[in-house]
Amino acid sequence: MKRPKLKKASKRLSCAKRYKIQRKVREHHRKLRKEAKKRGFRKSKKDPGVPNSAPFKEEILREAEQRRLKVCIVKMALSGFLWQVWKGSSEELDI
């Protein structure tokens, strides 16, 4: 059976090797910054809303609210369905 090493490896490096590693790290970070600058910072566009000058503003807002409610109802129904499936009571569901 091989005997374990009692001494740890030394962390000494020649200066040339240490500086080479530092230079490589510096170049890598510079490259990452340059690529990030090329991609640029994109702000998400905000919804400007409905202007007051729109002729059917109330109707548009009502439709948007109905759409939002419909999505909410679908999400709640889906989560309820998934909850019942997870609980194992699929015989109660109309599948």
TrEMBL record:
Record-level GO cellular component terms: nucleus
Subcellular localization(s) per the UniProt record: Nucleus
UniProt keyword annotation of Nucleus present: yes
Region (Disordered): 26-54
Any one Pfam family match given in the protein's UniProt record, by short name: GN3L_Grn1
Domain Guanine nucleotide-binding protein-like 3 N-terminal: 15-70
Name under which the protein is recorded: Guanine nucleotide-binding protein-like 3 N-terminal domain-containing protein
Biased composition (Basic residues): 26-45
Nucleus found in the keyword field: yes
Cited InterPro entries: Gnl3_N_dom
Source superkingdom: Eukaryota
Keywords: Nucleus
